[in-house]
User: Fold these one by one.
Assistant:
Number 1:
Amino acid sequence: MTREDEIRKEREKKLKELKAQSVEPYKHKYEFKDYASQILKKYSKLKPSRKTKDKVSIAGRVLATRIHGKINFAHLQDSSGKIQLCIEESTSGKKLCDFFKKYIDSGDIIGCEGTIFKTTRGEITVLVKKLELLTKSLVPLPEKWHGLADKEERYRKRYLDLMMNPKVRETFIIRTKTIQAIREFLVKNGFTEVETPILQPIYGGTNARPFETHLAALKMKLYLRISNELYLKRLLIGGYDKIFEFSPDFRNEGIDKLHNPEFLQVETMWAYANYRDNIKFCEKLFAFISKAVLGTTKIIYQGKKLDLGSWQKLSFLEALKKYTGENFDTENENHARKLAFKLKVDVSDSENYGEILNKVFEEKVEPQLIQPTIIYDYPASISGLAKLKPEDKRFTERFEPFIMGWELGNSYSEENDPQKIRAYWKKAEEAFKKGKTEAQRLDLDFIKSLEYGMPPASGLGIGLDRLIMLLTDSPSIRDVIFFPFMKPEK
C-alpha cells in the first residue's frame, strides 16, 4: 500500500465517523462575505501582535495545517488568494479545536468565521470562532508540485495546477482581462458582437483540415468550423456594418507549442473599409489591449523586450529582400525557384510563384520578425479570398501581424465578386481531389448570398491564445488554455 493509499484510507475512516455523528461532510451551501485578498489589503497596516474585534467570514480550501496542541494553524485559499487561520483552544473553544485537529486535512474545503489579528511575525490571521466542514477531500494535495518537471501532469490535472500554483491562476486572470479588453475596444468603436454556427455543413474561410462529425437526426456529415469568416460575411450581406465574434475554431492538424486542435480567435468584419483601415485599427487594438491588461505597451517575452505600441511595416517583397538579401520581385517563376535554391529552401512542391515566395518567407523571414511587424501585400495564389492589388495583380490587399516570429492574425480587403470566388473554389476543389486535404471547398450557398451583393469590406482575425502567451510570458500555448488537448492516459 502506497502512502497515498494509506492517507485515503484514513480519510475514508474520518468520513464514516462524521456521518455516524450526523455531520454532513458535503454541504449544500455556505454563506460568506469576505475574500482573503480583501482582508489582507484592508489590514495591511495593522501592527504586529495587534488584535481587532472586526468579524469576517470566509470559505476556501485548506492548503496546509500545523498542529501544535492547544494552538493550531492552517492556510486557507479562496479564489482571490491565501490567508492564515488560527484555531486555539482558549478562544475558539475546546470542541472546535478538537474537531479541527481530528477531522480537518489539507485539501478540505471549509467555511469559518472569526476576528482579525496580526502575529508577532507580521502575518495577518483569522482567529477562528466558528468552523464548518463543507467538502471532505479524500486524497492529499501533492507535496512536490511547484516546478513539476512533468508538464504533461500539470496540463492533465489543471485543477491541481490552479490550486497549487498562484502564477497559473494569474495567467488565466490575464486571459480573462484580455478578452474583456478586446470586447471593450470593439464595442467602443461601434462593433456589434454576434454568434455564428460551430457545426457547419461545409467548412470554409481558410485553408485547413477539418474535424468531421455526424448529425444522427438528419443522417448527414457535418464539420467543426475552421473559421467563422463566411458566416460573418453573410451578416454583412444582411445589413450589418461592423461585427465581431469570439470564435472557438477547430483544425485537424499538428500539436506543438503554438498549435492546439481547439483554439480561440476574435474575428471582425468591417463594411466599407479596406485592409489599410484595418492596419491602423490593428495597431490601435494591440496597444489598447496591452495598456488595459498590463498598464503598458512595453513587455518582456522570454527575455526579449517588445513594444506593442510600435510596429514596423514592410511589404511581402520588402521583407524578403531585407531578410534574405535577394530580390524576388520578378515575373519569372523559374528565377524565383533559382533564388530559393540559392537560399537552400526546398520549393519542389511549390506549384507557382506565390507558393515559392511563401515557402521562402516562412523559412527565412518569419523567424526574424521578433519585434512587432506588419507584413502586407501577400502573393495572390495563397490569398484566394482577398482582393487583388489593382496596380500589381501578383499580390493582394492582405496583411498579417507578427511578433516573436509568430503570425498573430490575418486581414484583407474581402473579395466580394461571386464569379471570382467561384473560380477560385473550383481550382481549390481540383486540388482537394488530388489529395490536398487543407484546400478550401466550394460553398454554393455562400456564393448565392454574394450574388445579392456584399459591400466592400475588410475582416481582421487575431489568434487570442498566442497573444495571451505574449502577455503572460508563457512559453507554450498549453500554458494559456485551461484544458489543452492531451492524449488519454492508459
Number 2:
Amino acid sequence: MASPHYDESPPEYNNYDETYMQTDDWSASGQPAEPVSLTPLPDPSKSSQSLGGGGTPPKPPDPPAEDEEDDGMARMSFLEHLEELRKRLILAMAGVGVAFVLCLLFSDELWAIVFEPAGAALRALHVNPPTLKLISPMDAFQIMWMKVPVLFAVFLSSPWVLYQVWAFISPGLYKKEKRYAVPFVLSSAGLFIVGGLFAYYIAFRYGLEFLLGMGIGKGIEPGVNVNEYFDLFVDVMLGVGVVFEIPILLFLLTLLHIASPAFLVRHSRYAILAIVILAAFITPTGDVFNLTLFATPMIVLFYVGIFASYILVLRREKRRFPWGTFFKWLMIVLVSLAIISVLVAKYYGYHVVFRWPLFVR
C-alpha cells in the first residue's frame, strides 16, 4: 500500500509585504488559511535611543511665537471686569470722600470763593448791598456745608479719580501703551481744572453780569436766589470742566483703536456742529458773543485732540513728527493773530485791559 505523499517544500515569502504564505495549509472549510503578517523586529540602536541608552532624544517642538503686541495685555473675563469696575469705583469714591472732609474744614472760605462772581457782578451793576436771597431755611446749610465742599472735592480729587479710570482700562492696552499713565492723569486732571478756572474767571463772571444787567433801568431789581445761583454755578463749572476733556477723549478713542485722526478730520464738520449746540446749552446767556466765547475753546481743544491722536499714530508707526517746522509755523500764526487783533481793536476804537473782556472802548 502506497504511503501518502507530503510536500516537504519550505514556506514561501512575499518579498513585497513580508507576509508568510502557507501554500499547502488548508482550513477546515477547505479554503486556504489567511496570510499571517510578520511584525518587523525593532532596531536595537533606535530602541536604545528611545530608552535613554546613550542616544540623543528628539528635540521638542518650539512653542508658538507670542505676538509682541499682545505682550503685557491682560486677559480678563466679564465677571473679572465687573469686579475690577467695582474696585475702581470704590477707590474713586473713597478719594472724593477724603477730599470732602478736607474741604469741609474750609467751608466758609470756599463759600466766599463761590459768592465772589455774584458779588462782583452786583457791585458792577451798582446794586447795594450785593447779597443773595435766602428762600428756604435749609438752603444755606445744604449749600455751604454740603454742596460747596462736594464741588471742590470733585476738583481736588480729580487726579485720583482719573487715575482709577486709567487703571480700569489699562489691562486692555498693550505693554508699550501703558507708559501713557502719567501723561494721561496729569493732562486730563489739568484740563479739567483749567476748564473750571476758565469758567470761573471768564465765562461765568461775564455771563452773570450780562444776565443780571438785562433788567436794570427797566423796573427790574436783581434779587438772586442763593439756591438757583449755586445750581447755575455748578452747571457752568462742571460743564466747562468736562468739555475741556475733549482732547483726552479723542486720544483715548485712538489709543483703543476706535477712531483715527483721518476719521476725525473727515467728520470734523459734524463735531463742530455738535460743539456749537453743546455750547448753546451750557452758555449762561443767549447772546452770540457768549456762545462764541464758549464754542471757540471747545473747537480749539477738538483739534488739539486730533493732533495728539496723530502723534500717537506716528509713534505706533515708529515715525517722528517735525517739531521744528511745527513750532516755527505756530509762532508765525500766533504773531499774525496778535497783530490782526490789535489792528481790529484800534480800528473799532477798542483798547486792551488786563481784565475780562480784555478789549473795551
Number 3:
Amino acid sequence: MPGSFQIFVNKLLNVEARELATASMSFVFVFLLMAAYYVLRPVRDAMSSDWTDAELSWLWTLTFLISTGAVLMYGFVVSRVKLKRLVPGVYIFFASSFLLFYVGASWFEDTRIIDKAFYVWVSFFALFHVSVFWSFMSDIYSRSQSKRLFGLFGAGASIGAVVGPSIPVLLGGIIGVYNLLLIAALTLLLIVPIIFFLDKARTVTENKPVTDTVTVKSIGGEFFDGFVDFLSHRFLLGIGLFIVLYTMMSSFVYFELKNV
C-alpha cells in the first residue's frame, strides 16, 4: 500500500519518493506562512476604514521609508549571518513582534497609535515573508527539482491564502480582534521546526545531500550589492517596472475600496 501511494503521488504531483518528506514539509511551510499573513491582513485593512485618506497616505509613506531602510539592513545581515540561522531568525523575529503588539493592545486603552504602527508593520512583514521563503526554497532544491516542485508549493501558498482569511471571519467575533495576533504568531512559530528539518534534509543535486559545511555559510558581499545587481540587469529592471505599475494600480483600487 505505501508503495502504491508513492507511485500515485509521483504521477499526480511529479514528486519522487525520496523527495516526499521535504516536499510535504515545504508545502506545509508556505501554507502556514500564507495563512498567518492572511489572518493579519484583514485585521490591518479593517483598521484603515476608520482613517482618512490623508492619514493612510502618511502611513504608506512611512512604510516606504521603513522598508527602504529595512532592505539595506537585511542586505547587511544576509551578508554576514549564517544561512542556518537567518531564515528561522526572520520568522521568530516577526512572531515575537506580533506578540508584542498583542501585549501593547492589551495594556493600553487607547490603541490608535498601536493600530497605526501595526498597519505599517504588517506591510513591512509582507515585504519579507514570501521572499525569504522562496530564497530558502531555491537554496534547498536544485534547478531540475524546482521545475517539478515549485508549482506544488505555489498551490500550498494559494490554499493558505484561502484558509487564512476564514479564521478572522469565523473566530474574530468570538475571541476578539487582537487575539488573532496570537494565532498568527503561533502559526509563524510552527514554521521554525520545519525550517530546521528542511535545512537538515536539503539537497543540492538530484541525489547527493549537502554537507553541514555548506549549510552554515553566509552569502557574503556588501549590503548594496543587491541594488547594484538590480540596476545592472535589464530583466530585473523589467520586473521592477512591473511591480511599480502593479502597485500604482492596486493602490488606487485599495483607496477606493476603503472609501466604499
